[in-house]
Amino acid sequence: MHTLANPHRQAYNQAMSHYQSNSPALWEALLPSPHSNSHKYSRGYVLIQGGYPVTGAARLAALAAARSGAGITAIAVPAAALAIYASQLLSIMAKPYASTLDLYALIHDPRIGAFLIGPGAGASKETRETTLTMLQTAKPVVIDADALTAFARKSDSLKKAILGQCVLTPHDGEFEKLFGLQPADQLPERIAQALVAARQTNAIILLKGANTIIAAPDERVIVNERAPATLATAGAGDVLAGLITGLLAQGMPAFEAAAAAVWLHSTAAELHGIGLIAEDLPGLIPAAWRQLTP
Ligand SMILES: NC(=O)C1=CN([C@@H]2O[C@H](COP(=O)(O)OP(=O)(O)OC[C@H]3O[C@@H](n4cnc5c(N)ncnc54)[C@H](OP(=O)(O)O)[C@@H]3O)[C@@H](O)[C@H]2O)[C@@H](O)CC1
Ligand SMILES: Nc1ncnc2c1ncn2[C@@H]1O[C@H](COP(=O)(O)OP(=O)(O)O)[C@@H](O)[C@H]1O
């Protein structure tokens, strides 16, 4: 059994022999595109758990999900925070809940295509339980930020709960809290650690940083080596999480959706250049998309 602390030599060798640099050729054919007979629900419905008092993160994620082409994006918000969310959202729907039962009813809407939990959610027992409820639906789930921290040293319980496609999007600090191991600086070791984590959780592991690693339980690995350093800005990770969720809701497979989202995210940042803040990214996703072969 490989462990994260001591990835077996085989995992290390696989890391080096398998990994491919992120490029559109790896996932372009699987990108969603709208059909003439589609309607907003059939184009993909994203539901994001919105937190309180940290409300910006889920809204950034929602804008990115919508810009990825999802037909409808909604944020489940605590009733007390409805006015805050609604005051700065137009096409994104804020769906208030007054109790856990209300929230779980929103999650069980059969039209939902993919879930996101974590940005601004709070690393609490409630966040952990809501994550498990989303996972029980067996629909695609992206677990980011506070929802990763809510499972600190509990990756086993996460693994047991993962029934469908799932993407975990840790930065180094979140990876360490979740798996109890600091990611290595050197690429081969980082890749091997991400691969073992993917196998242990049966999820796609997207380990963020200047180089982002996308590792699958079946040992596929893509490394994105072209992100501009301007992405190291508050909220950029929330935008990435929303982008992945939007692609998943439109039916893209998780590994390719993660790689495509990272590429679009990097390209949007490049298009903007210096002075980037996270708010700039969602609006640049269409321009990034247009860089692809028609
Ligand atoms: N507009 C909004 O509403 C925004 C809301 N946001 C939301 O706020 C919530 C908390 O987010 P957060 O940024 O306060 O906490 P988190 O990212 O967990 O960092 C905690 C500690 O981890 C460590 N650390 C180690 N490696 C690291 C790395 N590679 N990158 C970063 N950190 C690394 C580092 O500790 P150090 O290593 O410095 O001791 C750091 O101090 C969360 O819900 C998020 O979604 C934000 O997205 C911003 C925009
Ligand atoms: N030095 C860097 N160069 C390029 N990209 C970076 C660098 N540092 C961070 N990033 C990217 O910026 C994003 C930061 O996400 P995250 O750490 O989750 O921040 P936040 O929680 O504030 O949204 C990730 O996509 C990460 O890969």
Automatic annotation (TrEMBL):
Family as reported in the entry's similarity comment: Belongs to the NnrD/CARKD family.
Pfam families, per the entry: Carb_kinase (PF01256)
Function according to Swiss-Prot or TrEMBL: Catalyzes the dehydration of the S-form of NAD(P)HX at the expense of ADP, which is converted to AMP. Together with NAD(P)HX epimerase, which catalyzes the epimerization of the S- and R-forms, the enzyme allows the repair of both epimers of NAD(P)HX, a damaged form of NAD(P)H that is a result of enzymatic or heat-dependent hydration.
UniProt catalytic activity: (6S)-NADHX + ADP = AMP + phosphate + NADH + H(+); (6S)-NADPHX + ADP = AMP + phosphate + NADPH + H(+)
Protein name from the UniProt record: ADP-dependent (S)-NAD(P)H-hydrate dehydratase
Keywords attached to this entry: ATP-binding, Lyase, NAD, NADP, Nucleotide-binding
NCBIfam families from the UniProt entry: yjeF_cterm (TIGR00196)
